Structure formats: C-alpha cells, structure tokens
Amino acid sequence: MDRDQPRRGPPLVRRDTDQGGTPPQGRHPASGGAPPPQPPADLASRGDERLFIVQFRTRSLPEWRGSLAAAGAEVLAYFPYNAHIVRADPAVIERVASRDFVERVLPYEPAWRLSPELRAWVEGSGEPRRRRVRLMAFEWGSAGKSRIAAAAQALGAEIFTNWPSGHIIEIDLDRDQLRRLAHHDDVMWADPWSAPETDMDLVREDAGTNWVENNFGYCGQGRARRGDGRRRPGRPHMGLRRHPAPRRA
What we know:
four-stranded antiparallel beta sheet; 24% helix; alpha+beta
C-alpha cells in the first residue's frame, strides 16, 4: 500500500503556536533552536542535493507555502512539525531562509530517509549482503520512479517491481547502492521489503486523520450527505465517531 507522507527522520522541535505566532493559552511552546541528531558521515548531505526541510514559525499556512513556491521552491511533502520538504537550488533556499515566517532550513539528510532497520544494515557488515527494499518517490506516477530506477540500474542494482502508478518502487541492492540512492533527490524514504500480507485498515493513520483528531479535536462531526444528495444533520461524516476535544488548562 502506498503511503503519502514521509515517515523517517526525527521530527523537528514543535512550536505550538496559532496563526499569529502566539502560544495558545495553557500550552507551552518548546524551544525552537534544538538541533536534530547528526547523521553518520556517509549518510549526511554532500552539499549537492536539492532537498531541504523548511520549518515555519507558525503552523503551515497556504500563504507561507505560496511564498515558497513564488521564490522558486517546489513544496513536496509535510514534515512534522510545522515544516515541509522542498526541492530547490541553494540560491532559492537562501531567499526562502530570509522570510520572516521561516524558523529554520535544514538539509533533508539521507540518513533520515532510511528506516532504523535499513540504517543499521547500511552501517553494518554482516549478512545479508544484498536485500530487497521499497523506496517511495515524492512524485506520483512513473516519472520520479523512472529516475530512481535509472540511477539504481547505473549502480548495478536490480529493479524488482516498478508499477506505472503509485509512489513505490522495489529494488534489490547492496549496502553501497542503497547508501548512494539515499542521496537521490527523488527518494522520500526507504523501508525493508516484506511479502504481501493481510494488513489492518490503517487508512486513518496513513491519511493523518488520527493525528488531526488527537491534536486538534477535529473528528468529522457535523453534517453528512445521504445517498440521495440530501444532508443528514448531526451524523458524523464518513462514519468517524465523535470525540470531544481535550480540555486545555
């Protein structure tokens, strides 16, 4: 099953702010200056990658994302907290970093794109020497995955599956090949491959619904549309159960 959000890397320090940048009553903002863990040297940015994490001083707003796009940055994916992964040239990133709503800009380190299991395997030396992995491209469809496949084949890796749709490509490779592919600007993250199996229904988790409900109390209550097009008042939309938002001190 394709996943639509990046899941790797340490989340940036959260700043619980409203749209104006003021901490809500009863909430205490964390320090915004704590640096994330440093990656190992062979999985650190080399300086020629074009992927960066841009963290805002407030929650992400359409105006902030529009400003990034106007500066020449391509906004690719959300990154917790209050941040986005963007693709841009260094000159563009300098302009982005100067925006008054930007908290900080960091490279999207290759180490953060690997699951803990794959990171340990890449840094190790034992068996297996080769393994199958699932890489997720930022772009839906064949274009981004084709670029990843071409880079992998140039390194000597073998493509196991590459569907024309979706984000996922499955590749057989060794440690050095994975280490190099982790630097690729189309790679969002990589997981170990596993055989198909019956999974739980994780739509709410993968779509971020649980995160929104747990953090902000939005749970779909309100009005739902009937099959005949009319609305039914007071029924949770899409079957989401109503839970009261947590009370703040």
